[in-house]
Backbone:
């Protein structure tokens, strides 16, 4: 009987069920979404939960200063400074070029840190910064492939965030000229804003999960005082990922009766 | 510096702090960089990026980082074609740096520090 891989829990209520129990070990997992929709919260929750489970984690940031993580985490009651003191968390600030070159080196600084703290998880923020390393999509893909493999080599479960630039609507056209990282990632989670009855809500979908079944429904999620919580699927609506969903009955009428 | 000025500006400064000051701190940019590395102790980056983070000009930051590396507070590493800087992996030095940053939050110490730097980094 084939061995079933132990799942890595994200710590986000509802998300692990969507992921059929959690992320798979030694995988690179992409979380994509518009600014402010919850990518960093999800990532911090993943790291925090890991630390609570005795799985030390690293945050590799190309963008935010470590203090911003401490402050943002504290607003959810997660004491990142205490975790740092306990050796369960380190926030490494660097740039894609340096991180890439360091990981390629034998016993580079990041690798040494991973070994020393016996890190099991890493949050990489924000992978969009890799796009400045090359305008050639083939070269960029090769660079990212090598970067992700280096993290897997170290036995890490990686959560990568990537920013999309459109708040609502179809982002495919906007991002068509950028490297589609979803091909390289083992799983692909999309966070979106959606407008329902003149209010903005948040939606999450697992679009891909290599080597595992997963929930294919679009669910609502909320960010509250304890972090992110995934809720029930949207019901009776379609076109959720367009950012502007319609009642299904309305679509039915439009599609069949008004012709 | 005469005895009176020395007493006014040095006063009862912790001898370890004074030694740290004399060894590593001789410019305002260095103060910024020391605070930056204390607050972001796992930074590994190039001069260009550190200058961006610190909001200082690259040429000055290059000179100051090189000096801090020569004095042992930072590690300078050749990564392919890049030279990168990180805080030295020395717990004693990190404690001294933390003490310096904590002291520099004290207005009295800051006055002494400014005087010291204006005087060219010499007591």
Residues:
């Amino acid at each position: 009987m084939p061995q079933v891989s132990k799942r890595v829990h994200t710590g986000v209520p509802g998300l692990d069920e969507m992921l059929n129990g959690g992320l798979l070990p030694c995988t690179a997992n992409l979380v994509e979404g518009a600014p402010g929709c919850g990518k960093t919260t999800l990532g911090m929750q993943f790291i925090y939960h890991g630390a609570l489970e005795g799985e030390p984690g690293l945050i590799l940031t190309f963008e935010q200063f470590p203090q911003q993580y401490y402050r943002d985490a504290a607003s959810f009651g997660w004491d990142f400074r205490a975790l740092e003191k306990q050796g369960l968390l380190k926030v490494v600030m660097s740039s894609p070029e340096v991180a890439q070159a360091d990981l390629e080196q034998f016993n580079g600084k990041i690798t040494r840190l991973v070994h020393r703290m016996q890190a099991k998880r890493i949050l990489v923020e924000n992978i969009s910064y890799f796009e400045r390393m090359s305008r050639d999509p083939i070269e960029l893909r090769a660079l990212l492939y090598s970067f992700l493999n280096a993290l897997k080599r170290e036995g890490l479960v990686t959560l990568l965030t990537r920013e999309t630039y459109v708040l609502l609507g179809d982002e495919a056209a906007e991002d068509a000229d950028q490297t589609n990282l979803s091909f390289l990632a083992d799983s692909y989670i999309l966070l979106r804003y959606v407008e329902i009855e003149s209010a903005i809500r948040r939606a999450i979908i697992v679009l891909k999960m290599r080597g595992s079944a997963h929930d294919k429904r679009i669910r609502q999620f909320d960010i509250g005082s304890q972090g992110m919580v995934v809720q029930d699927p949207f019901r009776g609506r379609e076109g959720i990922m367009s950012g502007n969903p319609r009642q299904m009955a309305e679509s039915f009428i439009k599609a069949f009766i008004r012709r | 510096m005469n005895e009176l000025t020395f007493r006014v500006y040095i006063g009862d400064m912790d001898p370890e702090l004074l030694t740290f000051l004399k060894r590593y701190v001789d410019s305002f940019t260095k103060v910024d960089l020391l605070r930056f590395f204390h607050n972001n102790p796992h930074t590994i980056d190039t001069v260009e990026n550190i200058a961006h983070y610190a909001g200082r000009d690259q040429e000055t930051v290059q000179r100051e980082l090189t000096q801090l590396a020569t004095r042992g507070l930072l590690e300078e590493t050749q990564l392919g074609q890049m030279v990168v800087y990180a805080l030295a992996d020395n717990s004693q030095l990190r404690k001294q740096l933390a003490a310096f940053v904590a002291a520099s939050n004290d207005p009295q110490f800051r006055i002494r520090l400014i005087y010291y730097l204006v005087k060219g980094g010499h007591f």
